[in-house]
Amino acid sequence: MAKEEYRIIEAEAVVPYELALGGTVSNFFDYLKEEKIMGKRCRKCSRVLVPPRSFCPRCFEEMDEWVEVGQEGVVETWVYINMPFYGQVIKVPYVSAQIRLDGSDSGLTHLIAGFDLTNVNKVREIVKLGGRVKAVWSKEKKGNILDIAYFEPVK
Ligand SMILES: [Zn+2]
Fold first, then answer.
1. Which has the closest alpha carbon to 128: 102, 104, 95?
2. Is residue 113 assigned to a domain?
3. Listed residues: CB within 5 A of ion ligand 1
4. Residue pLDDT, tens place only, 11-32
5. Structural domain containing residue 31
6. Which of 16, 24, 51, 56 has the fewest CB within 10 Å, making it most exposed?
């Protein structure tokens, strides 16, 4: 079979959208404005999830008990991003991580920063699996996840 040739047009599509946050995430962001990190506890399995969910994805129980968790936690996994890609919001280089906050049973995805990120080998000396990090708050709160500016390693 002969290889088909296709004529193409290169274009860029922009898809503006709005996402309804719902009550649980809205409340989570309102708490962040007060510099509180809140999760929800499942009454059946007792897990505390941060970010909170309206129902437990394991038990399918409605989660209605708010619990304040620590502003420090442990790095469960992390990745160093130094290549730009389409739609990227954060300027490279940066470190994205899963952080299990004290008193929480799930990982919160956020940034680890507060030090020189330009050399990955130096970053690897600072960011460690199981290493402790703490929240650094943005001065101006907007009611979104970046009210926590980033997490920084605890010395
Ligand atoms: Zn549960």
1. 95
2. yes
3. 42, 44-45, 56, 58-59
4. 988 888 898 999 999 999 999 9
5. 22-153
6. 16
**CA 70 – ligand 1 centroid, Å:** 20
Q: What is the pLDDT of residues 86-115, one digit of tens each?
A: 888 899 999 999 999 999 999 999 999 999
- Considering the domain boundaries, does residue 133 fall inside one? yes
Q: What is the pTM of this model?
A: 0.88
Distance from the alpha carbon of residue 42 to the mean position of ligand 1, in angstroms: 5
Q: What span, in angstroms and rounded, lies between the C-alpha atoms of 47 and 101?
A: 13
**Cα 14 to ligand 1 centre (Å):** 39
The number of C-alpha atoms within 13 Å of 9 and in the hemisphere containing its C-beta is 3
* Ramachandran angles phi, psi of 72, nearest 5°: -120, 155
Domain assignment present for residue 116? The answer is yes
Q: How far is the CA of 41 from the centre of ligand 1 (A)?
A: 8
Distance 76 CA to ligand 1 centre (A): 21
Residue given tokens 């680890």 in the structure block: 112
Q: What percent of the chain has pLDDT over 70?
A: 99
Helices (H), the chain: 22-33, 120-126
Number of domains in the chain: 1
Residue 12 forms part of a structural domain: no
